[in-house]
Amino acid sequence: MRSFLALVTLSLSVCSQNRTSENEPVVFRHFTPVVPWTLDPALENHANVLKFQAQLFEPPLEMGLDSKGRVKIQAGICELPKIGDGGRSLKLKVRPGVRFHDDPCFAGGKGREVTPSDIKYMLMRHADPDVPSRYFAAFVAGRFTGLDAWRERSASEGFADYDAAVAGLEVDEDTITLGLTAAYPQLYSLLTQPWASIVPKEAIARYGSGFGQRPIGTGPFMFKSKDALGTITMVKNPTYRIRGRPLIDELRFEHVPTLEARTARFHNGDLHILDVWSQNQDSLFDRFGKVRSRFSKVGIRAARGTEMEISYFVFNCKNTFLGQAKIRHAIRLALDRRAFVRAAEGRTYKLADLPFPSAFPESTLFDRQRLAGLGRLDRKAARRLLAEAGHPGGKGLPEFVVDLPGHLGDREKAAFKILKRDLALVGLKVQMRASPFEEFMQRAKSGDLQIGWVRWYADYPDVENFLILFRHAGDPAANGNHGAYVSPEYDRLYERMAKMYPGAARDVLIKQMVAIVHRDCPWLMLYYSRADRLVAKGVTGYRYNVMNLSMRDVGLVPK
Q1: pTM for this entry
Q2: Superfamily for domain range 4-10+221-306+532-556
Q3: 92 and 116 Cβ atoms separated by less than 8 Å
Q4: The domain 58-212 belongs to what CATH superfamily?
Q5: pLDDT tens across 208-222, in order?
Q6: Helix, strand or coil for residue 11?
Q7: Residue 343 near residue 421 (C-beta atoms within 8 A)
Q8: 165 Cβ neighbours under 8 A, 6+ residues apart
Q9: In sequence order, what E strands does 420-497 have?
Q10: Is 447 left (phi over 0), alpha (psi -120 to 50) or beta?
Q11: Which one, of 86, 187, 199, lies nearest residue 139 by Cα?
């Protein structure tokens, strides 16, 4: 069997744009590690399905990036909302000229224009008791005036009347006013995500449960086919709302389940894009993080991902020993984070100094130089803190268990070796244990977790989705507070912040909350993951951002 490196270097030929004449279509060949069972955006939210949904559907708003790569919510199908009634009302105006894909479900086979009623239909469909929405409980339930009552009535009558009036979904000529039971600032960013995609009721009525196999939306591409090998083909939407987009004629997602096979096919010229993981990054990048010259000289380049995920150690703040902030800080100061992270993640990372990724605009509120100081390596200070806590040289402290949910691979083992070595230098002992996620969560809920090595990925593009992880009110474990951290001061600030829309007043509270987190150290912040991609020669406009995976701006330059 050929080695992995041999497969990588099998061929340095580069993907052409598969057009030999002006009359042939421009075809972009993507990969998919899994074949989705449905493309219905209400029924599935797996990461490997989002990239399909982002081509076919659009939500009311868009999550974009500014010139510096920071999160920027912008108009999409709708203009940016007008917020009223103390945050309990969002008025969304549908932009003219947005049309559904042409399909026989419409009169004459021509897709009609989107109206505010389509947004109402989207929300009611999530609330329909006969629709197994993945999102109703998390994002819709209890939020919109009258919608829960409509759901209960539908369940009792056995019929969902989508024409019924709902007080919180008020439609007029070109606008829908969302009436909320309380201020819901997270809705502003949630309306950028695939779960809120606008779908036509005509298609649901005609295709029923088959809609997920024959999806129709307003996106830049239209569904064409799915073959026996799992290849999903989409074609350019000729009536797309943005003139001149998309730039490619045909988009093919080919089922290539293993990274080894994807790497070989990319270098053979069969794919235009390649995902980068710890298993293949050393063969693709040099020690400076640049694409190796044998690849770059034939036009292969890196498309850097946007950091939307944080990796960290969470401490059990109810533990007799780890409940002491001085011991938590001692662990933080004793670990050479850069060496640990390099072993664990390779080159696709950025050291974390805030409890949320630097891609969020709120990261600019902080002094980066001061933050860098907080992450310093200082074993002398670590020893002093242990002594102040009554445990000089670690005397009287147990061997702590570091739990990892999932598989303990070679990189995790190498990183743990560094952790064990570094902590031993100040007198601390640790062991590592890997277990299934469900087992990890049970330990967290029962209070048996000591130190957990976990990640948190944005569910929606708002820092609130990360700051909730330190909130103790309600069910801490359900909120992601796996270490049972308790700070009444933090909780009071969070409750105020969570009811505020982005702006200067909210920023003041965020700065205070982050200061508390730095002071109390319920986490040892490790790194922000950056999911990189390699793109073939001729690929333009590709920008990897898992909050918006649309390929509408991607092009292929002729050879």
Answers
A1: 0.89
A2: Periplasmic binding protein-like II (3.40.190.10)
A3: yes
A4: Dipeptide-binding Protein; Domain 1 (3.90.76.10)
A5: 999 999 999 999 999
A6: coil
A7: no
A8: none
A9: 430-435, 451-457
A10: left
A11: 187
Instruction: Give 238-282 pLDDT, tens digit per residue.
Output: 999 999 999 999 999 999 999 999 999 999 999 999 998 878 888
3-class DSSP state of 289:
coil
Indicate the domain borders of the chain. 4-10+221-306+532-556, 58-212, 309-529
Residue 57 token pair: 């559907």
d(CA 70, CA 547): 12
* Cα-Cα-Cα-Cα dihedral sign, residues 475, 480, 482, 484: negative
Q: Give the DSSP H/E element, type plus range, for residue 29.
A: strand 27-32
pLDDT at 9: 41
Four-CA torsion 30, 31, 37, 43, nearest 10 degrees: -60
Q: Taking every pair of C-alpha atoms in the chain, what is the biggest distance, in angstroms?
A: 81
Order the strands of the 250-255 sheet from edge to edge.
27-32, 250-255, 232-236, 221-226
Distance, in Å, from the CA atom of 386 to the CA atom of 351, rounded to the nearest integer, reads 25
Check the CA dihedral 202-207-209-212 and report its sign: negative
Q: What is the pLDDT of residues 138-197, one digit of tens each?
A: 999 999 999 999 999 999 999 999 999 999 999 999 999 999 999 999 999 999 999 999
Nearest to 40 by CA among 189, 253, 206, 216: 216
Q: At which residue do the structure tokens 């598969």 appear?
A: 18
How is residue 286 written in tokens?
């040099």
Residues 6+ apart with CB under 8 A from 57: 41, 194, 197, 198, 199, 215, 217, 218, 219
User: Side chain identity at 45, as an amino acid letter?
Assistant: N
C-alpha closest to that of 269 among 15, 523, 45, 8:
15
CA distance 346 to 281: 7
For the chain, the average pLDDT equals: 91
Best CA proximity match to 157, nearest among 185, 128, 133: 128
Query: Can you tell me the distance from the alpha carbon of 306 to that of 461, in angstroms, rounded to the nearest whole number?
Result: 12
- Dist. CA 255–CA 34, nearest whole Å: 6
Total residue length of the chain: 559
**CB neighbourhood size of 80 (10 A):** 14
Where does 492-535 show beta strands of DSSP type E?
523-529, 533-535
The tokens describing 320, both together, are: 């007799």
Domain 309-529 sits in CATH 3.10.105.10: yes
Q: What per-residue string of b and e applies to 354-372 under the rule 16 or more CB within 10 Å gives b?
A: bbbbbbbebbeebeeeebe
**Residue 177's CB: how many other CB atoms inside 10 A?**
19
**Among 252, 307, 193, 228, which residue's Cα sits nearest to residue 32?**
252
The alpha-carbon radius of gyration of the chain (Å, integer) is 25
> β-strands 232-236, 221-226: how paired?
antiparallel
pLDDT attached to residue 2? 39
For residue 137, the tally of other CB atoms under 10 A from its CB is: 10
Q: What one-letter code names the amino acid at 397?
A: L
**How far apart are alpha carbons 136 and 155 in whole angstroms?**
15
Nearest by Cα to 81 from 59, 60, 97: 60
Q: Closest Cα partner for 313 from 432, 217, 185?
A: 432
